[in-house]
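Exercise (ungraded).
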Amino acid sequence: HKEPPPGAEAYIPQRFPDNRIVSSKYTFWNFIPKNLFEQFRRIANFYFLGIFLVQLIIDTPTSPVTSGLPLFFVITVTAIKQGYEDWLRHKADCSLNECPADVVQRGKVVRTQSHKLRVGDIVMVREDETFPCDLILLSSSRPDGTCYVTTTSLDGESSHKTYYAVPDTMAFRTEREVDSLHATIECEQPQPDLYKFVGRISIYRGREEPVARPLGAENLLLRGATLKNTQHIYGTVAVYTGMETKMALNYQSKSQKRSAVEKSMNAFLIVYLCILISKAVINTVLKYAWQWSPDRDEPWYNHRTENERQRHVVIRALTDFLAFMVLFNYIIPVSMYVTVEMQKFLGSYFITWDEEMFDEELGEGAQVNTSDLNEELGQVEYVFTDKTGTLTENNMEFIECCVDGNVYIPHAICNGQILSAASSIDMIDSSPGGYRREHEDLFFRALCLCHTVQVKEEVTVDGIKRGLHQGRPTSFYISSSPDEVALVEGMKRLGYTYLRLKDNYMEILNKDDEIERFELLHVLNFDSVRRRMSVIVKSSSGEYLLFCKGADSSIFPRVVSGKVEQVKARVEQNAVEGLRTLCVAYRRLLESEYEEACHHLSEAKLALQDREHRLAQAYDIIERDFVLLGATAVEDRLQEKAADTIESLHKAGMKVWVLTGDKMETAAATCYASKLFRRSTQILELTKKRTEEQSLHDVLFELNRTVLRQCSISGLSIDCLDFGLIIDGATLSAVLKPNQDGTGHSNYREIFLEICRNCSAVLCCRMAPLQKAQIVKLIKASKEHPITLAIGDGANDVSMILEAHVGIGIMGKEGRQAARNSDYAIPKFKHLKKMLLVHGHYYYIRIAELVQYFFYKNVCFIFPQFLYQFFCGFSQQPLYDTAYLTLYNISFTSLPILLYSLVEQHVTVETLKREPVLYRDIAKNSLLRWPVFLYWTCLGVLDAVIFFFGAYFLFDNTTFTSNGQMFGNWTFGTLVFTVLVFTVTLKLALDTHHWTWINHFVIWGSLLFYVIFSLLWGGIIWPFLNYQRMYYVFMQMLSSGPAWLSIILLIMISLLPDVVKKVLCRAMCPTATERAQVRHWHQLRNETEALYCLVPNFRMFFIVTYDNVNKLLC
Amino acid sequence: MMASSYSTKEEDGHPSGASSHGGPGAVKSKKPDNTAFKQQRLPAWQPILTAGTVLPAFFVIGLIFIPIGIGLYVTSNNIKEYEIDYTGADINSSCYSCAKSYSWNSTTSCVCSVEFILEQPFESNVFMYYGLSNFYQNHRRYVKSRDDSQLNGDQSALMNPSKECEPYRTSDGKPIAPCGAIANSLFNDTLELYYVDSNGTRNAVPLVKKGIAWYTDKHVKFRNPGGNNNLTVAFQGTAKPVNWAKPVYELDPSDPDNNGFINEDFIVWMRTAALPTFRKLYRIIQKKSSTTPTLPSGKYFLNITYNYPVLSFDGRKRVILSTISWMGGKNPFLGIAYITVGSMCFFLGVVLLIIHHKYDTRNSSADIPN
């Protein structure tokens, strides 16, 4: 059964992988080379490696240790982290690969290990076991050849899905029978789509022609899914084993999104690289100009070695250039990357830890799938949201149905008990007649039959019928679409109960407690393009019926008779009320028509290529000439606090777009309910209805005029009338479609964008999933390049979630696909508010400060060295000792900024939530724009000049100590370095607005560490060092009074400009954030008895509320 | 890179049914802890820098800094300092001939002398410095050209000095002790000071040559090889630095505590200066009695044994006599800087006060907390 029989079609032997899952990246042997290679592919690491190598090769001012040690540290930490993660993966792989699997061999079930499975093996799986690889279902212990499966671990859908055995092998019961199977399976190459599979099985029976059967996704049991409610099944290892299974293919990482902050960081880096190179060039040139006279180049006291003298001048110049590069290379800090990465990684835990974003009902909190985009959450300008399941609960409730204009409302829900079937129908417009009676019957049956709902039986009940007969519902319905469940449940309340699907017969308990059986012949599944689904059934009387339900737009054009007008009116009315409507139609099929339909379908299903397309064509042919029956209305309530969230987003300056597949009226009603549109909003419509009357061109221009006129008028007044735009899918594609003449198309696009820019809210209805992504792309590419965020819960939102800068998935009812493909997943729409306004805001200010501060502190660090070159004959003499050069970025100044970037809160969480306006303060990357960057850099240069020349003038020809002894160059450097470390740390202390005990600990702790380290470093003769230049230098410096005075003075002078700038800015033109801070401060002062303590060094007041003290003590 | 890896961990680590059907136990375990840290609710002080809060601090700083500055300035002005340039670059100066006729090989030393008059008496201890200009002791090639192990008395380093000492590492195949450019260029002028009293007789001013180097340098960092017993033996097999007239163990034969590597003049020279213009402590003139000044006002005579050439690189040589206060030598910069910063803070305080009052009423957002 594994090899094709001789004479079959050409068989290309193919190497199949074994069933080993390898999610790990490294093996024990290749870890070091491969990991190093991966790490040095990063440009920054490569740069530092380059510097390190230069230091090794040529004679450079600093020892290779200074750059080698940090690099080694960074590389080791990263390698350990990655190694640990890989070890975890190895462990997980091992447990997966070694879990037992039952294989049928020579008619017997043999237990083996999962990784030993090969393509073609027949596997037996028992209930609640997980499939060891992708299997084709051959037979099941259930007599109808079906089995139930949950794919929770694959896509998060908890509902049971039904899979079908291949009809020809369905009857196999024993191992021996299964083992006798002789068949070949052809299938497509492995691909990651979980819901698509195309294949064909040819079964050989003796010498007969093989029987070919189509295989689809409904036959393929996926690795990782679990068998439920079925004792055992047999299946062949279809095609996909090991790394070719769909589960494994789905682990492949998605494309990387980069945040705006990262982009500006890279831009800054380039600037610094230019500064670095120009510094080195300037110094090299000056060096040679200065050395022109030989007395300067080689005075008698300072000769070169013979080797050096013989070197060519070009080589010497190049060496000098490289040496300068090495001397100044710290301006691009190796630790910044580590710190940024750590900040992002650790910082993202605050999102998952957030209790307020935890949903009790769902039992889950927010999820972070990528931490690279944390700060992007604070930069969002456009929010694209899905409607169903995102804005609304996706918790459907059947409201009413109408058959030919007669409205039926189930009352069952009113008093909380289920009434008898007959009394639950309330007929508003009752005029019973034969025709009507017939349509009514058909309508209810249609709704009972036309669905893909499963009945889930309660485990304790042995017979489902009994439970229902006694009027106690012991079973419930499950389906991937909540609408269907609502409809079937609604039907139940109206007296028609769908019992189950048994042996391809659907059983319905009708109003008169009789069981009606319909043979289910075909299901024409729902898809979002067609927007309808159909079933073909054969009634007990032998009639072939096609029932179809779907969106009105997809049904009405296919209707040939029925009370279209009445139904349409009702549908529209319901839509205005925000209800979701579906139309129901049917068609009687003649025997011949049925045969023809069967033919079309099976042909399409058998096709190996283009199956989707062919099926769609077949559906199109079959679904026509309907008789309209009626319509249903289902309510989907708004999610809790959806309106509040949208209002906050609006206030925060974000533009909210709703993209939905729903009807315009329904969607508009939801928009009003969720305050996306307010009563004052002037609605602009750009719909098919309007473009049918006028040409698209005219409509667009007219709307544009309206918007522009309004804005020019109201430009003076604050109360600018806001616009809301409604556009539908058809018009959108017309707008985006390239025109034939080639000139108009870009115009339309521009005008459309112009209109959109002036609208505070846009509603796009009747969108296909791909169109959603198109819109996001359109906005992303517009000339301001705004940051976009897409939020959705369903599979149809995945494309826009992937397209937008930030994709947020809602862990909704429609499965986990959106959440899995998103960057962040949250349980409810309302959590978006905290996610953006609080977390996004915090992350942005934190990382912005982190980036700016890092550049600042390294300018402060390196610029004095640059200045020193002018006083040491451009000899690349470092100002600071090697230990200081090495440890400055690693330990003296690294922790305070890392901590700041993790816990800083410039405004409290409550204020941020209460005042969404604060979000505007950081819009458009405001803290990382060039002027701000320039300010920080200039501040850095100024401080560096103060450090250097301060020390210079103090050292100028004088003595420092009371015993007349002199200091040397290392004391000079240490003085500058001490001032530097203190200034840079205190500058951060000045910027810190949220002083927790950890901040105190880290800031004062790192200063203390510096002092202790220096004392220790200079305290002993280090035996392993070949120089002792720092011996007692720090202590001697501290023993001199003027050194203390000058350290204090220089720190003051360097901090002064920044303090003055801060105070002046705050006083003259405070930002909204600063005002909020002050308000909060006053509030605190009024509420609790405040304690002021003036700390003159920092020139600020600390407020300690008793409350906080108490908390601290507890 | 990081986040994606930990999310996969979650997925393949526990494929348990993460769904709404999960029991209450599963719900509990997933719920984040309600700790102040995890919920970002740690108690915190929230200082803000407003004109109102910074104002008093500015005044206080002004009030503290200005007196300190005045004190420093006055102290600095009370320090007496006298400087004599004896380079001999100028044809009129007495050392001109010495400077011109200089050669390293000459065995006889050139002596010249300079006369000067102190207008005011120097009351307390007087410190005598020599100063060099345009001498790049901080040149990288120069700074690193030493072997600290050798100077610390290490035997192996003595016989095999560090590579950093090149090209002053060996001479005639023997290792140089002390090796390196710094040691080689040891300042070797001899300065003697005479007080010319009213009768015209020259009285030598006693110059103390101890206590000019750091205590730790003298006692820990610098050590003679093989103890202080017999330096001639200890340094056997080494060569003297090329520019030196005599070997290291003859630097001060009179005092074994000041000979060899622990010679204080040598230690002072070995501490490389930060800037190309520098001074180094040469001798101390101790105050003898409380009644007479250390250096009374009058005529002085400086006798120089001119050995050290500086004109080739445009250098200058100076002798500085200076008294010292608690804050070191004469340096008006610190005092002036303190006064400037103090008054600037005061001025800014006033400006802020105005701004504060002007904008405070407009914003009604910040008032003086007092």
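Further reading is listed at the end of the chapter. For now, observe: The longest strand of chain A covers residues 515-527. The CA atoms of residues 439 and 629 of chain A lie 6 Å apart.
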